[in-house]
Amino acid sequence: MTMQHTQLLQESNSIRAILREDLTASTVPSLQSQLKDALKQDVRDITFDFQQARSIDSTGIGLLLAAKNSLAAQQGHLRLINVPNGMFSLFKSMRLIDSLNVEAQGNTPDVQGNDTESELEQAFEQAQAA
């Protein structure tokens, strides 16, 4: 399945969603439709690849949480990979790293440790500006 903003690669009951743009209000509706169709086809695992994405807004976060909840109801799993450092820090500040299974892009020692409040605020501002 191919879309303008996201490429969905399906293998058995798993999907890899390769984000070609940011996960925002302008890109979510078409992706949401495709994911709903996939979940009807017994998909149990979805991996979002953020390698080409640079920002996410509240609509994108809402989509990820809805996908996680839908998959959990089917004993499935959601995973986010190649998440850029600024976005990783945003997920961390929102305490979503574990529940969304977020894996940072490359080596990220600066976002893996205990961040101070000012570091988290800076990361949040960078994620919003991206």
TrEMBL record:
Pfam families from the UniProt entry = STAS_2 (PF13466)
Q: Name one GO molecular function term.
A: anti-sigma factor antagonist activity
Task: List, alphabetically, the InterPro entries matched.
Answer: MlaB-like_STAS, STAS_dom, STAS_dom_sf
Gene3D superfamilies (alphabetical): STAS domain (3.30.750.24)
Q: Which domain of life is it from?
A: Bacteria
Domain STAS residue range list: 19-127
Name of the protein in its database record:
STAS domain-containing protein
Chain segments carrying region Disordered: 107-130
Q: SUPFAM superfamilies, alphabetically? A: SpoIIaa-like
